[in-house]
């Protein structure tokens, strides 16, 4: 059975005190029901049944605003969970590395910036054991998902251009998925031709 830290001053915090009873109880429930990376598989009906409360997704998200980050239709992220449970994440710690990999998988490093590589002033960088080829294979698996998000682009064709660009320029990145998404966000077509010279300078 997993155990977690809980803030003994939780109910002394003004924002907690101002919640109604249902939302206070749901917040504690959420902190105990999410996974070790602070991600909750959204099941409001189950939560309502287990807590014997009438709660709705709309009320929850309106109440907790930025304290909960919905990032998929059925997944929520609680950034403060990681900060309280682990402090700064350190990739040399195996438990922390597992959390970092989950956050990287779901592109959640934006909402949570507390990373520590052991180098002063270098908190936003991540050491990763995933090779370039492994990361590119991971991107291939989510091409259909990326096509839905970037529906004005031909994502499969763009991915081939991206790989050719990496090979031609010898480019290396810590996070290739983030680099490819940046590629998709930008328009490099000029006069009907693709111009990648300004990309990732």
Q: How far apart are the termini?
A: 48 Å
Envelope shape: elongated
Describe the biggest sheet?
Answer: 3 strands, antiparallel
Q: Helix tally? A: 10
Largest sheet: spatial strand order: 1-3-2
Query: What does the average pLDDT come to?
Result: 81
Give the total of beta strands: 5
Strand-pairing-aware structural class: mainly alpha
In angstroms, what is the radius of gyration? 20 Å
Unreliable stretches: 116-129, 189-201
Question: What is the N-to-C succession of helices and strands?
Answer: HHEHHEEHHHHHHEE
Task: Kindly state the percentage of residues in helix.
Answer: 40-55%
**What is the percentage of strand-forming residues?**
5-15%
SSE topology:
Blueprint lengths: L13 H4 L3 H13 L5 E3 L2 H8 L5 H8 L4 E4 L2 E3 L1 H8 L7 H12 L26 H10 L1 H7 L5 H15 L6 H10 L3 E2 L2 E2 L7
Antiparallel strand pairs: 1-3, 2-3, 4-5
């Amino acid at each position: 059975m997993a155990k977690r830290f809980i803030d003994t001053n939780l109910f002394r915090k003004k924002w907690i005190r101002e919640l109604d009873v249902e939302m206070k109880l749901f917040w504690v429930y959420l902190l105990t029901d999410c996974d070790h990376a602070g991600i909750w598989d959204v099941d409001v009906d189950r939560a309502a049944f287990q807590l014997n409360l009438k709660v709705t997704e709309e009320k929850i998200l309106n109440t907790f605003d930025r304290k909960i980050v919905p990032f998929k239709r059925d997944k929520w992220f609680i950034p403060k969970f990681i900060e309280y449970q682990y402090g700064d994440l350190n990739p040399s710690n195996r438990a922390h590395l597992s959390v970092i990999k989950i956050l990287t998988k779901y592109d959640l490093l934006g909402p949570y910036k507390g990373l520590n590589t052991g180098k002063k002033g270098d908190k936003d960088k991540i050491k990763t054991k995933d090779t370039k080829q492994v990361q590119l294979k991971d991107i291939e698996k989510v091409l259909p998902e990326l096509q839905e998000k970037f529906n004005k682009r031909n994502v499969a064709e763009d991915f081939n251009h991206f790989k050719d660009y990496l090979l031609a320029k010898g480019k290396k990145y810590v996070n290739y998925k983030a680099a490819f998404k940046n590629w998709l966000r930008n328009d490099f077509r000029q006069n009907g031709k693709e111009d990648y010279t300004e990309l990732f300078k």
